[in-house]
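Changelog-linked ticket: adenosine-5'-diphosphate example.
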Amino acid sequence: MNRIAKTLHFDAGLLTLTSVSIEQTIAFGRWLANHLVADDIVSLDGDLGAGKTALTRGLAEGLGCQGPVSSPTFTLLIEHPAQLGGLALFHFDAYRLSDSGSFCEIGLDEYFTQKGVSVIEWGEVIADILPTQTLYILLSQQDLNQPDSRQIEITWPGCPDRLAALIQRLKEDDSC
Ligand code: ADP
Ligand code: MG
């Protein structure tokens, strides 16, 4: 089992974790998926190579939905249909958009209410239209001398109770 590193810090609504390998980041995504429900939205930010797609791969595994996760940079959206009884994953990449206008013009925001989990790489580009239940994750490489280390910062401003529950589960759960 690849364990996500211990909670480093929780203060003022910000939960900070450290991942020391891509496998840990994927494992965290897999774990997080178990705490998501239909129409949840996860906004992923961080530089190229920060691990947004890797985390999405874990989310897809945890949701048990169909199809391999790759970077949707050139397609805006890759849809992963649900397996029986599970949730679909709508995997967006807003990198090439200038703002939320074009996202809405082509109706992509309608996926937010299609009873799946929406994950948006470069979510900050469309921050102004993200619903209140959005979970925000910022990935970053803090130390160039540790190329496989990533800081994972999590906020859930619209759902403080759910963030508190997540932290409680992180503390209790031996598998992460
Ligand atoms: P993004 O989608 O943010 O551009 P990717 O997930 O596509 O990033 O790529 C992340 C890259 O960083 C991969 O090459 C992966 O092997 C590498 N990597 C190294 N350490 C980690 C880590 N702890 N978590 C995630 N990716 C990592
Ligand atoms: Mg990516």
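Closing comment: Example verified and attached. The longest strand covers residues 14-19. Residues 52-53, 71, 121 surround magnesium ion (ligand 2) (CB under 6 Å).
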